[in-house]
Amino acid sequence: MRSARPVTRGEVPEAFDEVADRYDLMVALNPGYHAHLRASADVLVASLASRAGSRSRRVARVVDLGCGSGASTRAVLDACAAADMAVEVIGVDGSAGMLQAARAKAWPAGVSFVQARAEELADRADLVGDGGLDAVFAAYLVRNVPDRDALLRALRAALAPGGVLVVHEYSVAGRRLPTAVWTAVCWAVVVPLGWLTSRRTRLYRYLWRSVLDFDSTARLTQRLQQAGFEDVRTRSVSGWQRGIIHTFHARRPAPRPVSTR
Ligand SMILES: C[S@@+](CC[C@H](N)C(=O)[O-])C[C@H]1O[C@@H](n2cnc3c(N)ncnc32)[C@H](O)[C@@H]1O
What we know:
7 strands; 10 helices; binds S-adenosylmethionine
């Protein structure tokens, strides 16, 4: 296998350009990839629906941050369709190659793709829109951003009051079995498959290392709370990735109704 310079966090979006045309093949070989995204998207939609209340006929504005080739965008759309929820989804990614792969697919009206860094989201009025986003879905993104606390604060700022953040992410820190399973699967399956599908392994070696270096679920929960989110809860997926991949739900607080008594 070719041994190239390791990928660093700051250059992650561009590193995805190298594997963009093989990314869908790679994830198709990963059992549960799409089902797990869908489970996290269902958490997002359920939370949006509970918030919508009387405003439920309005079109929800959702950013799929780190949308890649669109697998997570599709999961959000399918979850919204199943809940009969009208939605506008903006897929945002820093990799031109991954966005090209996403745009090459067929999408319904209301879906668009924009190249930008995740960290810029709150400063992009064209993406956030009037009054803020109803939801942000971030699948396999947060681990890759160098300053996670700044990112989470920016996401809180980009959301409307009451808006929902769902993070779908690997986390094994502090748990021996998930850490061992993760390392075994990476070196026995993921890195060799990366070589077979794209003749490259450096992004997949980075993937292994970045997951080992990432926050525990308790630490990410704490970061979300410190960034000003409430209703922070987490649950793991099913299958062999149980304890390895998790859904984190968080909400930007909405002003409490003033009591008239
Ligand atoms: C593992 S892929 C996941 C893609 C998609 N969300 C999915 O679930 O299939 C991570 C994506 O995040 C993007 N990404 C990583 N860091 C980023 C950053 N700082 N800003 C924007 N995009 C970023 C990468 O370019 C890549 O397309």
